[in-house]
Amino acid sequence: MFPQLCFLVISNSHFSCNVMWLSSQINSDSTSAGDDFISHRTDMRGFRTLVNGSTILPQCIRAYKNNIAGFGIGVRYKADGDETSEKKTEWDKITSVLEYLNLDQNTKEVFEDLIEAREIYGISYLEVIRNGVNEVVGIDFIRNIPSIHKTPPLDPYVEVEYFAQGKTEQRMKRFCKYRQTIKMKYLTTRLSLRFYV
To answer: Tens-of-pLDDT digits for all 197 residues of the chain?
Structure first.
């Protein structure tokens, strides 16, 4: 059964309640332009309240954080071999990138926050920052999870290179657009403050 939405319309002391059925299916024709963002089915802020009110959920989340990101992030070669100048240069570059992926907090802490948000909200977002030559230079955890909306996978398919076990493969993939609505929330808060003053 589909979730129900009830609207209460107040007009000239007449009350009416309309029940509207919401389908969970997405019409690909209407969303192919990338203008239609999927809204959350529930208020995601309630998940944080649910976790805060629980005795077992914070313990489980803490255990996940310690077991997954608790050992830190490091660099190692797949196969041992002689260290050449090329390997040494590559090693130094990767270790310096890992060290400075996030200047506000330790990279391990970024991934702990990512895991915590994933366990609370069911989804989490990590922004990967690249330089002009498409190299990763930083990461940033997006803290306000309920403010993120995305589109369904968009057309056209894009050819993407995958690297796995020393082989390069070409695959077709569709991507989504994401947006964060912070200013709208700020304006809503500002309007409600003006309303009560």
So the answer is: 444 444 444 444 444 444 333 334 444 444 445 568 888 888 888 899 999 999 999 999 999 998 988 777 888 887 777 888 988 898 898 888 888 888 899 888 999 999 999 999 999 999 889 888 988 889 999 988 888 888 898 888 999 898 888 889 999 999 888 888 876 643 222 222 222 22
Closest by CA position to 144, among listed 113, 176, 108, 175: 113
Rounded Cα gap, residues 197 and 185, in angstroms: 19
Contact 147, 123 (CB under 8 A): no
- Rounded distance between C-alpha atoms, residue 46 and residue 122, angstroms: 12
* Distance from C-alpha of 191 to C-alpha of 197, rounded to nearest angstrom: 10
- Residue 8 falls within a domain, yes or no? no
Range of the domain at 113: 44-72+84-196
Angle at the Cα of 40 from the Cα atoms of 15 and 115, rounded to 5 degrees: 145
CA–CA dist 69, 115 (Å, integer): 8
**Residue 4 falls within a domain, yes or no?**
no
How many folded domains does the chain comprise? 1
Q: Is 78 part of a structural domain of the chain?
A: no
Strand partners, 172: 159
Sort 145 into a burial class: Cβ within 10 Å, 0-12 / 13-18 / 19+: buried
Q: Is residue 17 part of a domain?
A: no
